[in-house]
Design goal:
Elements: H1 5-11, H2 17-35, H3 46-58, H4 60-63, E1 73-77, H5 85-91, E2 96-101, H6 104-116, E3 122-126, H7 129-132, E4 142-148, H8 153-160, E5 164-174, H9 176-186, E6 192-196, E7 200-201, E8 208-216
Parallel strand pairs: 1-2, 1-4, 2-3, 4-5
Antiparallel strand pairs: 5-8, 6-8, 7-8
């Protein structure tokens, strides 16, 4: 693979791309070490990690460059080992990320990784989104709810619809086939306008992606 993460970060006009790449490498090594005793992900090799975890997470800035300059509050649902939340927090210090997962070992890893990387703009919550959605503390707290490689969009929306502030957005990482399958059901939700971004290719023929977006009417 000839993919260069630094070139990719520069193409997206990310601030301090050299620092981002160095921190992503630090994260990869920490993930690799932790993965020996706690099964978090099968992807730990440098090239695959940079492509399938980092670059994939960063593509959101290609379509939503305003995330680089505004202080949005973002909830990452089913954060897993921290993709995209850790990567977004590294790339855009102006963002405030809340990484949510029902699996304690994953939340613990993200919290430890955030501490290792000095990320003061990332917080973790161990819990099920559907239960948090009923709590006053999470109501109208986020500008954006995102999720990557978790559950179908209608399910995530249903479990987090109270999270969003007025004029907030749902932005879900999807493959084109997932988007095509899920959009018809989403379009029946009348209080939001649902759309799909253009389809794009990840570097090195890693796969096709798009975003499914829900915005206030």
């Amino acid at each position: 693979m000839s993919f260069q993460l630094l070139d990719f970060a520069r193409k997206l006009a990310l601030p301090e791309p050299e620092k981002l790449v160095a921190n992503c490498d630090k994260l990869r090594l920490f993930l690799e070490e932790t993965n020996r005793s706690v099964n978090l992900t099968r992807i730990t090799g440098e090239a695959e990690f940079n492509l399938k975890h980092v670059a994939d997470s960063l593509t959101i800035f290609q379509f939503f460059p305003e995330l680089l300059t505004s202080g949005f509050r973002i909830a990452d649902i089913g954060c897993g080992a921290g993709f995209p939340s850790l990567i977004l927090a590294l790339a855009a210090p102006n963002l405030e990320l809340t990484a949510i997962d029902s699996i304690g070992k994953k939340v613990n890893f993200v919290a430890r990784a955030a501490e290792l990387l000095g990320l003061t703009n990332l917080h973790t919550v161990h819990g099920r989104a559907v239960e948090l959605n009923r709590q006053t503390a999470f109501r109208n707290q986020f500008d954006i709810v995102t999720a990557r490689a978790v559950a179908p969009s209608p399910k995530i929306y249903g479990e987090t619809k109270n999270f969003i502030r007025n004029n907030g957005r749902f932005i879900f990482y999807k493959t084109p086939s997932q988007a095509a399958e899920e959009l018809p059901e989403l379009l029946r939700i009348k209080n939001l306008k649902w759309s799909q971004s253009e389809i794009f290719e990840l570097p090195e023929n890693t796969g096709s992606r798009c975003f499914v977006i829900g915005t206030a009417n």
